[in-house]
TrEMBL record:
PANTHER family: SPORULATION-CONTROL PROTEIN SPO0M
Name of protein: Sporulation protein SpoOM
Species, as recorded: Mesobacillus zeae
Length: 256
């Protein structure tokens, strides 16, 4: 083997390449992801310390009264132990991992992707990026359906940096912003914001922010002082799906 090939490989020139093929690109939170990682060797033999898969999304952060986009690591999975890949050698490695239950959904501007990397000592890290679509599960769908039946329309969905009191495992929360376009809350509310906090596959905590429409002088004063918003916490389970509309309506009515 040429000494130049060894030197080039150590600085990432002519080094191994990686490609990940997912079984599909649509998933639900908590679902198993399967696929195959293909590694093609470069011009020199290389030792791969590990192959890892990581889940990422972006979210909005605020600092010094300015907003900017940051990348968040949702989870990371080790796929293999140390191995060697020879010059022009090709390896296929099947993998599987489970999506966390608190995955954000691919709604609005939220994008989610799987990054594949090879950890190679003294080399540029070869990586691959594959976007996936995370869909709402049955419980989330029931909440969305109930909101729609109550006359709400989804206006925006975005991942934002979580405040201290709302922070869980991840540094962000995903907010779903609804506006009433018909039904009993039109003219009463400006908007309704919903955040999901999954507790298990069949149980979820909902955080609702009910933004009342200003009515009269006192109402405008309340809005100016930002006291027209009421935060509501409620827990829903799979058993609540048939009555989700009534449950959500009752929670909102108490504060509208």
């Amino acid at each position: 083997m040429s000494i130049f090939n060894k030197v080039f490989a150590s600085i990432g020139i002519g080094s191994a390449q990686v490609d990940t093929r997912l079984e599909r690109d649509n998933y639900f939170p908590g679902e198993e992801v399967k696929g195959i990682i293909t590694i093609n060797g470069g011009k020199a033999e290389q030792r791969v310390d590990e192959i890892y898969l990581s889940l990422h999304t972006t979210y909005i952060k605020e600092a010094d009264d300015k907003k900017y986009t940051a990348t968040a690591l949702i989870d990371r999975f080790r796929v293999t132990e140390t191995f060697d890949i020879g010059p022009s050698e090709s390896k296929e490695i099947p993998f599987s991992f489970q999506l966390p239950g608190d995955m954000p959904l691919s709604i609005g501007r939220t994008k989610i992707w799987v990054s594949t990397g090879l950890d190679i000592k003294n080399a540029v890290d070869p990586s691959d990026k594959d976007f996936i679509k995370v869909l709402p599960n049955r419980l989330m769908e029931a909440v969305f359906g109930a909101a729609e039946d109550l006359g709400f329309r989804l206006r925006d969905a975005e991942c934002e940096e979580a405040s201290y009191r709302l922070r869980r495992r991840l540094p962000f929360i995903q907010e779903f912003e609804f506006i009433p376009v018909s039904g009993p809350f039109r003219g009463k509310l400006d908007e309704l914001e919903v955040v999901f906090f999954p507790l298990s596959e069949n149980e979820m905590e909902l955080y609702l922010q009910v933004d009342r429409r200003a009515r009269g002088l006192g109402g405008f004063l309340a809005e100016a002082l930002e006291t027209d918003e009421t935060n509501v916490r409620m827990t829903v389970t799979s058993a609540d799906i048939p009555s989700m509309l009534q449950k959500l309506k009752a929670a909102i009515e108490r504060y509208s």
